[in-house]
């Protein structure tokens, strides 16, 4: 996680809104947050943790957290935090508290809102799960990213179970917790094995012997089936021949019966044929004539109905036409005078308009009388403002002539600021030089304890080291010789004739060597080796101490030379800066005089600004008055123009009067004139309406009446023609009746009423004739066949019985053969299946053994603990790279058999001791080393280019030398692209970290953040 910005308001000691942009701090790589105890430094980290997780170290939910976190002088608390997560995605979280205006202790906490930066805007998320976004739980966040006060040593002091759980969460070790998966594998395999054993029980009798016996029985039954089948085929052929004869005889009897039945129906079919012929002849000759008779009668009835309807319409239209003609005669005189009335309507409209125009002219005169005094009043105000402006402009001109250039004042001020900065830096650098000299003297005194020459100490120690190594080699060689002698002595004492020699294998031992007992010499040699090891360890310790001392002296000498060079450069810069002073109105040694002049210039600037503002206001007032005057004048001109337009309109309308006179209507109002005009106009419209209606009605009725009269004439003509057609048709029908031999038309109608289906009847008659002929031919043919072959029912029955018995026997034998063959095939399949099941059983049993091995390995999170131990060992190795340097190779961190941390103390022969025995400063050193290693390991999983880490304690427990080493360690982290933030009240650290924030607690404003890079 990389922070972008943090905004606080009303939180703890932060009363006013404070915003931190981390861009410059992140760019520096190593930065600090400094301030006195209680200034509010740690509150910044707590705000970040609370913004993300809603949790704090100081307070929990039961502590009325919202009230206690809010500043007592504030009514609202805000935390607004922006950051990049491990995926380089930009997020923002916003939290807010509000105090109840009626109850001071009641502080409501609103829900947090998380945002993601997408498409160049903040998009709110539908959850507040910081762990999903950051990739760490709250507990692990405060162990790897932001370590709050009092929690720095927590990781070291965690128990084994808690530490394993933490490693599991941080590094995703749950993927190694396979116990549940192994258990499921075991159960699944056991279930398969049980199911397989149950399946094998069904195949216990399935053996090779059983299969061979079943195959023998099947072969015997199959041979029997083949013999019976051949006999059945022969006898069945004889039966089939008898069946043919029987079927022929039976067919003859059946056809004979059917023929007799049809011959009985033949007379009725012949009668039906005669009726059909009569029906078809009558329908052909009379059906069309009867249809035409019916059509003529229907048309005759319709003509009569149409004639009556047309006659009624003629009477109605004649009556309406008489009424419309009478109305037209009544309205015609009034309609002839209508143009004169319209002229009066037009002139009444002109007179009404003239009357309204005179009323508008009166209004214009009244408005002019009110507006002219207002214009005069505005002009007087303008004159007063112009006099005031003239006076103030003269005063402003006089004050501006006394001004000093702001650019000059700014340049002189910058010159004095730079001079003070350089002088302060020179003093600080000289103090650092003196402090570094003192440190070099102190370290030199440590070196003098070992009484070694400054230039030759390394050669002296190397010579001594070589002597000690040679001595050790001699002792080891002596030990090897003694051990060989002791072993040979044991061999010789065990040699006896007839027993093989363990070295050469011989059974005879004529010359056995005599080796004395060397146990005492061997013990003496071992003691000398132990004593020599103590000497070598002590020598190694001296070498390490001298290397450390030499390196420290070298570093401080380099630092001293750099400081001396820095002082010289600053003095040169100061000298050059003094030469740059070129302002004759000021003295470079009199900064107080400059400040006095600057203050006076500032007062003069305020007076000028006040006058300019006053002039600007006066000018605005003048412009407002001028605009107001211009507005009034425009309005008066508009009124005068309007009055003139009304006068011209009156003159124009009076000239248009012809029928009426204006003088007759002077006493009437425009409303009264309009009412007269409206009445006259309504009367004209009514006359026009009634006259036009009468004309329209006459024009509509005349063609309608003519149309109906024409229709009556057409109906009369059509009726006469229809009567002629009817008479002609009657003559034609009478002639046909006489020809066909019918007395009346009723006889014909009775025949046609039968509605015979001629097609169906003819088809039925034809089918009967064909069927009768076919039967007669069939009976004759069968008679001829039966005359050749005789049919004997007894012989047929006997053969049929014999074939049925053979068929049953063949069927039973075949079924037994099929059953036996099916059983045999099933036994063979089961035997193959049994072999497959036995192979699968063997595989599952081997798998069960392997799963048991895995179960033992993963039981009780054993494998997770094993992997966790590997991660912890790697963590120790990473931490020791820094811890060794911080402790000058005196201490080392390792894991014991219980996976708990312990210390290797090289000052005490590399013996181990508990981490709880470390001093406060040493605890900080090992905690810092572990925390840095843990943060690197966890953050490396995110594959981020930059990693962030915050430390909030511990530097106060370190001496100045340890602080130097810690500071150097932190600087190296910056080179490794690590970003480290430090919270401390140690002033020495603040001097070494150029980019920092300083938190100052103001009695009135609360905590205020100052930025070193903006001062």
TrEMBL record:
Give one GO molecular function term: ATP hydrolysis activity
| Keyword annotations from UniProtKB, A to Z | Coiled coil, Exonuclease, Hydrolase, Nuclease
Q: Which SUPFAM superfamilies match?
A: P-loop containing nucleoside triphosphate hydrolases (SSF52540)
What InterPro entries would the database entry show? P-loop_NTPase (IPR027417), Rad50/SbcC_AAA (IPR038729)
One biological process term from GO is:
double-strand break repair
Q: Which Pfam families match?
A: AAA_23 (PF13476), SbcC_Walker_B (PF13558)
- Which organism does this sequence originate in? Myroides guanonis
UniProt feature coiled coil, ranges: 279-306, 419-488, 539-645, 670-739, 796-847
Ranges for domain Rad50/SbcC-type AAA come to: 5-254
- Its domain of life reads Bacteria
Q: What is this protein called?
A: Exonuclease SbcC
């Amino acid at each position: 996680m990389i922070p972008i910005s943090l905004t606080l308001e009303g939180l703890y000691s932060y009363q006013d809104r404070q915003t931190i942009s981390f861009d410059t701090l992140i760019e520096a790589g190593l930065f600090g947050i400094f301030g006195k105890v209680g200034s509010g430094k740690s509150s910044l980290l707590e705000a970040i943790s609370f913004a993300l997780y809603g949790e704090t170290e100081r307070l929990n939910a039961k502590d009325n957290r919202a009230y206690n976190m809010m500043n007592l002088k504030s009514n609202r608390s805000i935390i607004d935090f922006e950051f990049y997560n491990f995926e380089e995605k930009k997020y923002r979280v916003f939290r807010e508290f509000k105090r109840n205006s009626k109850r001071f202790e009641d502080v409501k906490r609103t829900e947090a809102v998380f945002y993601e930066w997408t498409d160049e805007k903040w998009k709110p998320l539908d959850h507040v799960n910081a762990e999903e976004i950051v990739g760490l739980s709250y507990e692990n966040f405060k162990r790897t990213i932001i370590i709050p006060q009092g929690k720095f040593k927590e990781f070291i002091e965690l128990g084994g179970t808690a530490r394993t759980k933490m490693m599991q969460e941080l590094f995703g070790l749950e993927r190694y917790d396979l116990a549940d998966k192994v258990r499921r594998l075991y159960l699944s395999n056991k279930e398969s094995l049980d199911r397989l054993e149950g399946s094998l029980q069904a195949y216990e009798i399935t053996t090779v012997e059983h299969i061979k016996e079943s195959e023998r029985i099947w072969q015997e039954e199959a041979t029997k089936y083949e013999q019976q089948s051949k006999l059945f085929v022969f006898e069945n052929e004889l039966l089939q021949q008898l069946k043919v004869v029987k079927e022929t005889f039976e067919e003859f009897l059946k056809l004979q019966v059917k023929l007799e039945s049809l011959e009985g129906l033949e007379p009725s079919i012949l009668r039906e044929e005669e009726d059909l012929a009569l029906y078809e002849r009558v329908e052909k000759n009379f059906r069309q004539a009867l249809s035409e008779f019916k059509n003529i009668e229907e048309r005759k009835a319709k003509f009569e109905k149409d004639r009556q309807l047309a006659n009624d319409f003629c009477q109605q239209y004649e009556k309406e036409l008489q009424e419309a003609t009478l109305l037209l005669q009544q309205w015609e005189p009034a309609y002839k005078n209508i143009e004169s009335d319209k002229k009066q309507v037009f002139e009444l409209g002109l007179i009404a308009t003239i009357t309204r125009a005179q009323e508008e002219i009166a209004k214009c005169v009244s408005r002019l009388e009110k507006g002219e005094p207002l214009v005069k009043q505005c002009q007087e105000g303008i004159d007063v403002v112009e006099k005031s402006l003239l006076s103030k402009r003269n005063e402003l001109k006089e004050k501006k002539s006394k001004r000093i250039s702001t650019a000059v004042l700014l340049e002189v001020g910058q010159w004095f600021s730079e001079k003070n900065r350089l002088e302060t830096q020179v003093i600080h650098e000289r103090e650092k030089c003196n402090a570094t000299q003192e440190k070099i003297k102190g370290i030199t005194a440590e070196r003098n304890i070992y009484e070694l020459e400054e230039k030759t100490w390394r050669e002296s120690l190397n010579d001594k080291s070589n002597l000690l190594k040679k001595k050790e080699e001699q002792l080891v060689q002596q030990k090897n010789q003694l051990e060989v002698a002791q072993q040979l002595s044991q061999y010789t004492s065990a040699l006896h004739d007839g027993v093989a020699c363990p070295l050469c294998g011989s059974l005879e031992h004529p010359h056995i060597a005599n080796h004395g007992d060397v146990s005492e010499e061997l013990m003496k040699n071992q003691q000398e080796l132990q004593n020599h090891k103590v000497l070598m360890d002590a020598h190694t310790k001296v070498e390490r101490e001298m290397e450390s001392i030499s390196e420290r002296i070298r570093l401080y000498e380099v630092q001293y030379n750099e400081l001396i060079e820095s002082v010289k450069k600053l003095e040169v810069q100061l000298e050059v800066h003094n030469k740059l002073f070129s302002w004759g109105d000021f003295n470079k040694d009199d900064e107080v005089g400059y400040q006095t002049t600057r203050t006076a210039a500032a007062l003069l600037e305020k007076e000028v600004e006040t006058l300019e503002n006053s002039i600007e206001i006066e000018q605005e007032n003048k412009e407002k008055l001028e605009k107001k005057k211009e507005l009034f004048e425009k309005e008066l001109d508009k009124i005068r123009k309007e009055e003139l337009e009304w006068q011209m309109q009156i003159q124009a309308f009076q000239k248009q009067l012809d029928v009426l006179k204006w003088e007759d209507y002077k006493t009437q109002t425009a409303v009264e004139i309009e009412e007269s005009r409206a009445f006259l106009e309504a009367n004209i419209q009514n006359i026009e309406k009634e006259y036009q209606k009468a004309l329209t009605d006459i024009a509509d009725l005349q063609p309608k009446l003519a149309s109906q009269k024409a229709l009556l004439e057409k109906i009369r003509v059509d009726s006469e023609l229809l009567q002629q057609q009817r008479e002609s048709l009657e003559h034609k029908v009478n002639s046909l009746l006489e020809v066909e031999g019918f007395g009346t038309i009723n006889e014909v109608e009775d025949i046609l009423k039968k509605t015979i289906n001629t097609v169906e009847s003819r088809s039925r008659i034809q089918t009967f004739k064909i069927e009768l002929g076919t039967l007669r031919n069939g009976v004759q043919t069968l008679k001829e066949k039966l005359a050749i072959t005789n049919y004997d029912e007894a012989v047929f029955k006997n053969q049929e019985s014999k074939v049925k018995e053979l068929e049953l026997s063949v069927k039973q034998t075949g079924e037994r053969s099929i059953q036996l063959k099916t059983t045999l095939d099933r036994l063979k399949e089961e035997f193959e299946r049994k072999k497959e099941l036995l192979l699968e059983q063997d595989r599952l049993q081997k798998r069960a053994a392997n799963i048991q091995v895995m179960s033992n390995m993963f039981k009780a999170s054993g494998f997770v603990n094993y992997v966790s131990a590997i991660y912890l060992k790697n963590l120790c190795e990473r931490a020791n790279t820094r811890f060794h340097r911080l402790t000058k190779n005196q201490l080392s961190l390792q894991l014991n058999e219980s996976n708990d941390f312990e210390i290797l103390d090289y000052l005490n022969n590399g013996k181990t001791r508990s981490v709880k025995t470390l001093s406060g400063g040493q605890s900080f050193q090992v905690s810092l080393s572990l925390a840095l290693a843990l943060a690197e390991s966890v953050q490396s999983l995110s594959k981020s280019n930059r990693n962030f880490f915050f430390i909030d304690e511990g530097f106060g427990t370190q001496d100045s030398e340890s602080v130097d080493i810690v500071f150097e360690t932190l600087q190296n982290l910056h080179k490794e692209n690590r970003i480290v933030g430090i919270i401390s009240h140690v002033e020495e650290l603040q001097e070494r970290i150029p980019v920092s924030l300083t938190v100052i607690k103001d009695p009135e404003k609360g905590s205020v953040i100052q930025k070193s890079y903006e001062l």
